[in-house]
Design brief:
43% of the residues lie in helices and 30% in strands. With 143 residues, the chain is α+β, with helices and mostly antiparallel strands. The protein has one domain. The protein has a 5-stranded antiparallel beta sheet. β2 and β3 form a beta hairpin. α1 runs antiparallel to α2. It is flat, with a radius of gyration of 20 Å. The chain starts with a helix and ends with a helix.
Length: 143
């Protein structure tokens, strides 16, 4: 019984540890949005990666990332690789997508989508909440 309670405490601590960077990421993201400039980027290519695990289906394990080209306010052209993989049929050369970037660091652009802007924080916070809930459930359980 004590071992299970200890595991619950570990889960609560892990959840809290994951929530701290989620909060810091949210603060940074709000600051990023407030200072960011918006620009439209054009898909110029598709970057395909293949997992190292062999599968019988040739499409299995492939990830597709849009490569976008955009010009910043200073007239400099930049190439941006989307952070998240997408279905192959969702990316077409010539498509346009809104990007946000900081003029001080144009190479750090983000796609202007929910996951492009908030994705990292959502994943961290969601995982932290799951660990907290699981730990609390174990600790609160009467054994």
């Amino acid at each position: 019984m004590g071992g299970l309670r200890g595991l619950g405490i570990i889960f609560v601590v892990l959840g809290a540890v994951l929530l701290l960077p989620a909060v810091l990421d949210a603060v940074y993201t709000v600051s990023f949005i407030a200072r960011a400039e918006s620009v439209v980027g054009e898909v110029v290519d598709v970057d395909v990666t293949q997992s190292q695990i062999p599968f019988t289906d040739p499409e299995s394990g492939r990830r597709y990332y849009a490569l976008l080209e955009y010009t910043d306010a200073d007239g400099e052209t930049h190439l941006f690789r989307s952070a998240g993989a997408e279905p192959r049929d969702a990316i077409a050369v010539g498509d346009e997508r809104e990007l946000l970037y900081l003029s001080s660091s144009p190479e750090g652009a983000r796609t202007a989508t929910l996951m492009g802007i908030w994705g990292r924080g959502i994943v961290l916070a969601g995982t932290g909440v799951l660990f907290l809930a699981a730990g609390a459930a174990v600790i609160g359980r009467r054994l």
